[in-house]
Amino acid sequence: MGLTSGLIPLPWLLLCWGVLLILVIAALVCADWAQLVVERPLQHSLFAGILLLVLAWQIRAGLSPGLTIHILGMTAMTLMLGWAFAILAGVVALIFMVLLGRESLDMLGVNGLVTVAIPCLVSYGIVRWEKARGFRNFFAYLFVCGFFGAAIAVLVAGLSMVALLWMSGVYSWELLVHEYVRYLPLILLPEAFVNGTIVSGLMVFHPQRLLTLDESRYL
Fold first, then answer.
1. Which letter, b or e, does each residue of 128-149 get, where b requires 16 or more Cβ atoms within 10 Å of its Cβ?
2. CB-side exposure of 180: number of CA atoms within 13 Å?
3. Alpha-carbon gap, residue 172 to 190, rounded angstroms
4. For residue 61, what pLDDT band results from cuts at 50, 70 and 90?
5. Measured between alpha carbons, how far is 35 from 45 in angstroms, rounded to an integer?
6. Does residue 2 have a pLDDT over 60?
7. β pairing state of 61-62 and 68-69
8. Global pTM value
């Protein structure tokens, strides 16, 4: 979400770094590296996803430092790659953003947590919920996990950033509401549309690229 250098107090900064590090280690352990080695389509999805994230995150809008809005794209990444590879891909994309000068290194922990980890885990949680409900309609996966999942993921990520900025004393609640919270609904529809369109395209032409899609349950 574009948090700028020196914005977050050090204790909160260290906390976010610690949580992100734990999640990255968990992703490294849980990722199916054997599958990645033998499946070339998965390799293509991973590397193409990283590139698309870097390109998409170049476009952003906002007023005060840290209060920026942009397409996250982590829901589509999660549905394609699973939560582990999605988190790793998002963190790698953030590292590229740092190298390009679009993000600051000290904010990598916070940006990684808000922009990558939280929307990824929310998206994966929605996938698990949809599976637990036992939906048999093919469109349930598309709309629940793709469109609505993306909207919910960016909403939770945005509110998490607002909570962090408020609890750490960076901005007052009134300013956060005035410059960010009231504009947050405007990003829900574009986020849902972009992620849902990508997922629907893959479902039609390359359903095997969606690792979280259990085709046998809908056919």
1. eebeeeebeeeebbbbbbbbbb
2. 27
3. 27
4. low
5. 13
6. no
7. antiparallel
8. 0.91
Helix (H) or strand (E) holding 72: none
Q: Quick one: three-class SS letters along 43-57?
A: HHHHHHHHHHHHHHC
Output 97-100 pairs: Cβ under 8 A, ≥24 positions apart: 97/54, 97/57, 100/54
Higher pLDDT, 138 or 55: 55
Q: Are 151 and 184 in contact (CB under 8 A)?
A: no
Per-residue confidence band for 62, with pLDDT thresholds at 50, 70 and 90: low
Work out the average pLDDT over 1-20: 81
Cα–Cα nearest to 187, from 64, 60, 102: 60
C-beta of residue 86 within 8 angstroms of C-beta of residue 118: no
Residue 124: CB partners within 8 Å, gap ≥ 6? 78, 82, 83, 86, 212
Domains recognised in the chain with CATH numbers: 10-218 (1.10.1760.20)
CB atoms within 10 A of CB 30: 12
Residue 199 corresponds to which tokens in the numbers above? 């997922």
For tokens 């922990």, what's the residue? 109
Q: Which helix (H) or strand (E) holds 68?
A: strand 68-69
Tell me how far apart the alpha carbons of residues 77 and 200 are, in angstroms, rounded to a whole number: 13
Measured between alpha carbons, how far is 111 from 105 in angstroms, rounded to an integer? 10
């956060």: which residue's tokens? 176
In 3-state terms, what secondary structure has residue 10?
helix
